[in-house]
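Sanity check

After download, print the first record. It should look like this:
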Amino acid sequence: MHFTLRQLQAFLAVASTGSFTQAAEYLSLSPSAVSQLIIELESLLGYRLFDRSTRKVALSAAGRTFLPSVRDLLRQMDTTRMVATDIRDQAAGLVRIAAPLVIASTVLPRLLAGFRRRHPKSIVRPLDCAVEDLVEKVASRQADLSLGPDRPVGPEVLRIALFPSPWVVWCAPGHRLARMKRIRWSDLAKFELVTAGRDHEIHLASMRQQMLEGSRVMPQHVVDNISTALGMAAAGLCFTLSPAYVESLARPLGLVRRDIEDPMPTREMSLYLPADRHPSPAAVAFADYLQKKLVTARPESSHQRAD
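Expected structure tokens:
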């Protein structure tokens, strides 16, 4: 039986109102059009749905049996229509976003709160990960998006640069670096350095290759987490180098920020998306939201692959 949605809607409207005229008004059709839909449906089913008289229209015994299933079907159709609309309007869905601990604990929460107000039916689930795993999380489909410092990507992942964050010195107020008016790389070589994570160590090594021999800084300590490095610096044991976006963790520890001159290296805060598949509408909506909120200065080549 190939009855139509419109026929079922006409049946439910007549059954609910007990009148072809009122059903027609509800459906924005003429009474004759509603009557024709019921005739077509009864012909397909092979039995009468209504007992008609000049005074009233009442459900037949078969119509009363048929009614609950039609009501359930149309209710499910309404639910399906709402879900389809939500997906189209990017209002529903699960988004998994990977981010390093410092980003996941300081930057993401306020962004999640703002996005939830706009898309209350969407669920954004942060995934803590190491910086060096940001690209792999997206490539392996463990995450829909990743947010963090710039990393090299392959053909399956697209990197979008959001904003530059300079590498800065964090040290205790009593540290000699805190009292210096100007800090050059050659000055840093005189003091004990702690770096956080393999990613920081590699990035620092890359910067050293571009500097003169006397300006190269070697870390004496390498720890896993930036919170450990900041804690050691706060105790006056050493200083640490990190992108400026860790400020919300550094300031409560009483650390002093000092900028480095000649050169001032930067890291790009970046958004990583899959390049080999289409993200879900909810993921696209969240990615657009992140870019609008985080981009402060977009260069012409911000949409690029990092080789």
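If your output differs, re-run the checksum step. Summary of this record's structure: The domain at 165-267 is CATH 3.40.190.10 (D-Maltodextrin-Binding Protein; domain 2).
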